[in-house]
Amino acid sequence: MKNVIVVFALSVIASLGLQAQTVTGKWKTIDDETGKPKSIVEITEDNGKIYGKVIEILTDKKDAKCDKCPGADKGKPIKGLTIIKGLKKDGSEYSGGTITDPGSGKEYKCALKLDGADKLNVRGYIGIQALGRTQTWIRVK
User: Would you indicate the residue range of the signal peptide (predicted)?
Assistant: First the structure.
């Protein structure tokens, strides 16, 4: 009986550890220029694809709109805007989708990769990943 309880407890602990190793959840973005928190993005999975929506603005620009965004996103409030679209798991990272920079309105190819349980490397690039830049987002607990 003790062995059953131990195995059950280890299974629960292992499953919690696996859940922590996912890109889904809430992430704090950091401004490249100031180093200060900029927004909270909630990353979700829908039908095997990853999406990220701005759910909170942490600066004084809480009512900012994405005036330079392309297509249907043009003029929409940044809060509530889906900026990460259509990424799929590819080994240890997620790629094959896009990310929109609401400040410039530019859309880039995107790759996400966890750095431990609480850091997410978000790479936006044009063409190949070597031609891009990476931001590190921090998990919100």
Answer: 1-20
Amino acid at 94: Y
The CA distances from residue 139 to 26, 116, 118, in Å, are 6, 10, 5
Domain ranges of the chain: 2-139
Of the candidate CATH numbers 3.30.2350.10, 3.30.200.20, 1.10.1510.10, 2.40.128.520, the domain formed by 2-139 belongs to 2.40.128.520
Sign of CA dihedral 76, 77, 83, 85: negative
State percent of the chain over pLDDT 70: 86
CA distance 99 to 137: 14
